[in-house]
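Hi there,

I know you've been waiting on this one. I reran it after we fixed the sequence typo, so this is the corrected version. Both the input and the resulting structure follow.
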Amino acid sequence: MGPIGAAQLGEWFDACGPALLLYARQWLGPAAAEDVVQDVFVRLMRQRRRPASVEAWLFRSVRNAALNELRRQRRRRKQQHRLAAEGHDWFEARPDDLMDAKLVQAAVTGLPEEQREVILLRIWGGMTLQEISEVLGEPVSTLFSRYRAGLAQIRQRMGESCKTKSD
């Protein structure tokens, strides 16, 4: 049982990959599940010796990696909410601003993460939806829907039309 060759690795990926992906998706979204499965195969490739039961090793490794990623995601969300609750200011208020910075921050931090990210990249990052698509690896149509839904929620929370100086 020596090092694992590329051909053998490819066979295992073809045979187990779809089931491993399905297994990881019980904890994670599609993109994160794919990342976990790929990382596990990279770890398998780096093994000096083939595990006694490759299939069992793969499933155990995917499970552990998926649960670790799920914990990371939860910690990240908790940290974001904690920072927002502690009152860390995202925006610096200026006298000529049309909107209250704290009100905007509360509205933006209350958005679902996927919407918030698109809003921040589009408005404050000045990126086009096509550029955001390249950054996030998501279709433009999906990003447009998130952007539109996020703006609608911001308008509702702020009780204003979110007009800018040029409107």
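Quick highlight: The two ends are 70 Å apart (CA to CA).

Best,
R. S.
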